[in-house]
Amino acid sequence: MRYLNHHLQIKSDVLKELRRKPDNQLLSHLIFPTIDKLLMFYAIIVGVKLTIMARNIRTLGDVGSNLLTELLRRGKRLFVLNDAAEIYGNNNSGLRDLLSTLVKRRWLQRIEKGKYLILPFEAGREGEWTEHEFMIASHLIKPYYIGFRSALNYYGYTEQVSRTVFIASTRRKLKSALEISGVTYRFVYMPDRRFFGATEITLDGYRVNISEREKTMVDCLNRLDYCGGVMEVAKALCYGRDELDFVKMAEYARRNGNRAVIQRLGYLLETLDVGIDEAITLLRDSTSNSYASLDNLASPKGRYIERWKILVNVPENELLQWKER
Questions:
Q1: How many CA within 13 A on the CB side of residue 9?
Q2: What is the CATH number of the domain that holds 76?
Q3: Which of 129, 145, 161 is the C-terminal boundary of a domain?
């Protein structure tokens, strides 16, 4: 408001100067209606800015403070409506109003219907903050595990950085993808017979389910569209050659039930010289009589390999480049 007062003082000073000389009376009548309109417009702009600034202040009342404090004490950084109801009480309408207010004041981020993330003080006035994407993923659907390219990236088997988190589950979501704070969470339906091979890791104090290294390879060969193609799997097999249990991987491939996965894996292990005889034998015993494309995302043209019933439809020299790394 001090800027508005300053401009009003200027107007007063100019008016006094003009009125000192009679010749200036007419000029003052012409000028000041325009100045008045400009000052009025300026006052409106200042008022709007002050209102916006007031609304942007991250205030937190006693009720909201008590609710968030208790949720954090219980380790519920990301919580659902029922978690808050246990603390707040049975007044559903009052609780929803409170949560809505806390979202507007940027103390909470609404992840999806009935799910909220508590934003820390460090998020600042704009509420710019997000937890590890795997932690958020763990609250979006049950049962679940992080898989495909996201798991490859976690294990260090790919340099590809993706803003998509792939979540495998035996349940289907109404929407196959959800965007939160610039990250896309993609839900991949998996039948019960293929939903196995997950392990638990800890990130920032939270326990998260992720596919085992070996199951990650099998899942990727089953759904190449969720890992970036067979070249990414070839790269991962070479990067992980000293960590992967190839017999377990072969057993997982057989359990998966997709013969194309078995044939792709067998061909890759032999071509890249990263497997062991026992794993190769297990895979050879389970091949199909039908040919499968090595990469079903590529053109269906290439060289047929009788031993593995595989159509090699990607440049073999590009596959072999990972063998030496």
A1: 6
A2: 1.10.10.10
A3: 129
Give 74-93 pLDDT, tens digit per residue: 888 888 899 999 998 877 78
- Label residue 54 by pLDDT band (50, 70, 90): very low
Determine the Cα–Cα distance for residues 213 and 324; give it in Å rounded to an integer.
21
Name the phi and psi angles at 189, rounded to 5.
-70, 140
> How many domains does one find in the chain?
3
Please give the residue that has the higher pLDDT: either 174 or 130. 174
Asked if the structure places residue 325 within a domain, the reply is no
Least confident of 34-38, 172-176, 283-287, 310-314: 34-38
Asked if residue 148 and residue 230 are part of one domain, the reply reads: yes
Instruction: Give the predicted TM-score (pTM) of the model.
Output: 0.73
Domain of 97? 62-129
Whole-number average pLDDT of the chain:
83
